[in-house]
Task: structure prediction
Amino acid sequence: MQHLNNKGANRSDTFATASQRACRYLREAIGNKTIGNIKRADAIVFRDFLKGKCLAGSSINRIFGTIKAIVNFTINEAGLDISNPFQGVYIASYEGTVDRRPFSEAELRRLQALCFQTDHDLRQMVALISDTGIRLSEALGLLKTDLVLNGKYPYCLIRPNNIRRLKNKNSTRTIALVGAALRAATSLNLERTNAELVVSRYVKNGRCNANSASATLNKWLQGNDFRGLTIHSLRHSFRDCLRAIECPVEIANELGGW
Result:
């Protein structure tokens, strides 16, 4: 709780959820123990417990990172003269992971056509993502003022706001609007409502719920026979498009917020 009170301020709800879930897993694995009584052997038991839940290596690594951060914080705050037993535990990060494949050019064109078959804001948001490579959470947190459509070169501003944070400091960027993205932005920016947000249906209590939107859109993709593809696959496709035109890596990284 002390960790959440100090580190969780102004963080998304997922931060608290991830911390609480990691601590629950730890209690299930080794029982209730004070930090001073947790040994290296307990950390190994915890790792194997997570593997037993058939979690991917990347997920285990993320949960371990959460626990390490909590333990480090507590050790420092309490002035304990002990080492972190979770530090340096080997985790096969890529074990159990599945490579996400990008959309092929034909699949991308079919998806964009589907997005404009009906006047549906969330599907038009997919079209916006398809030609900008922005993250779904970034798209859902867009304000109408972030879509700058007047002038010779229309563009989209990706910047933090009260609805959603950005993944990292490199995520703040400006992206040109072209193709399906420009068409979608023009439609989404119409004054259909007085809402400040471009799409507001997944914002509750002032927070953007990208996980719910992702589940809905991924189900829609599967229902339209986009097998093995997710909304996140569009970021991989965007990267492939940049690579195909021999875009310098530095510029590609800046456009994708990598």
Q: What stands out?
A: The chain has a mean pLDDT of 87. The longest strand covers residues 155-158.
